[in-house]
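Page 37, top half.
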Amino acid sequence: MAMSCDVVMTRSVWSYNLEVEFELIRRVIGFFPFISIDTEFSGVIFQSHPTLRQPQNNYAVMKANVDCIHLIQVGLTLSDYHGNLPTFGTSHRFIWEFNFCEFDVTCHPHAPHSITLLQRQGMDFHKNRNFGVNIVQFVELMMISGLLCNSHIHWITFHGAYDFAYMIKVLSHHFLHMQPLLPPNLDHFLQLVKFFFGQEVYDVKHLMRFCPNLHGGLDRVSESLGLDNSARKKSSRRVR
């Protein structure tokens, strides 16, 4: 039965508390094996052609974008089989928000409307550049935390191709000594997803295709299923 506590605290992760936060994740990963991931990046620059919607064409467009733009933020939510989040013995539930330092809004490619939207949501690009996490250190700690290459973990996304694409680009470069680019074809990409994230990877947006009564975005789907989506609708507090 899911816990009744309403307050969800976002643990904001920067370079100075990265190791501490990953140690917390390592301690509880065995009890919370369902991981939801969401990313923020500097927008989509290349668009697919309306008449070219085959999987390989869609992958080529995603690769073109991911190869040239930067990851800005990763959100992770850990839950157990009943949907409970870690509490660490407190009266609050916790999720994580990792902020990265690589993106420089003054010189790196980006979609201006995406940057404007992120700024309206409170993103401070100057703070990210000065205090954000180094992406290489992030994936190294991610590997030893138990999040990756772990057959007991279930990964969940919503329209998450880009979420995994950014992770695969960095992971394959660092651990497999590949170029800091996505692999050239979709099959190789999917093999790498299985290698790092395992067989239990679910995209809710894709699963909706097999549920005729489910439509729209994540909020609407949650409503249709009668799920508690208060953490998304309320402004969760932050632990910095």
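Page 37, bottom half:
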Amino acid sequence: MAADAAREGKDIWCEKPMTRTIGEGKKVMEAVKQHGNIFRLNTWFRFDSNFYGMNTEVKNIKKLVDSGMLGWPLKVTVGKLTGFDWKFYWVGKTGLNEMPIPKELDYDRWLGPAPYKPYNEHRTHGTFRGYWDYDGGGLGDMGQHYLDPVQYFLGKDNTSPVKVEVDAPQQHPEAVGTWRKITYTYEDGCQIILDGEGTTEAPYIAGPNGKLYRGFKSDIPNMERKLAQFPEPTPQVTDFVDAVKNRKKFALNEQNGFRSCTLVNMGLAALRVNRTLNFDPVKLEFINDEGANRLINQPMRAPYTI
């Protein structure tokens, strides 16, 4: 829909996650670039309000990271202490029996480009997120909310990790299951760790020179007083209407939004193949892994195309 809107010359306010696969995201990004649309992705934690369980605005974290007080590289842990425990409930079921399609539901249209599977109510409604054909569980549905601000304050809006590792049971080919940990590593050594069990009492950010905890607390003595001498982060364009009127690129757009959605989709790919994956952030493909690369561009059921 976003790519079609771009080709029709429409400016776009797109719901997260931006796309279900890396390949779809690349096509949306290219369409917006080609047609000069203003694009906003609907997750706002990089520029507005508190960041879930952190009890502070992301701009404060960005300022601290940019100051260099924590050192480099940084390790960011997203877990229960940062509001990540919702993800335990977004799993699918196996062995579902076929059910009659409700007369008010156009099931073929609901499926869209997804493969045709016999109807069962658990594959639709709010629980559809637990099935690989449509989503990727809690990480697929909400992961971009958590990962996008991390990408922003680490300064990674124009790149992607070079490696993703998973600690998880083998996933069912149709139903999304649980997982314990996903670790992303960037070329410079920065890491993002998703704690899927809620057991890690880790600081939110750990660097060679100090740590940042929930509530903007740190083990750096007089951290906030020292931080006051540093400049504020560069202001962001956060008014979508103004961006449309004045043709200004929105803060979270088709480019950096694609990158934070790629974080989500890299993690999901590693879960599905259940192994460590190396990634090329320029070519946007996994290195020497045919099975994982098949998940980048997945078949679409006719007559759907992008």
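Margin note: The chain has a mean pLDDT of 94.
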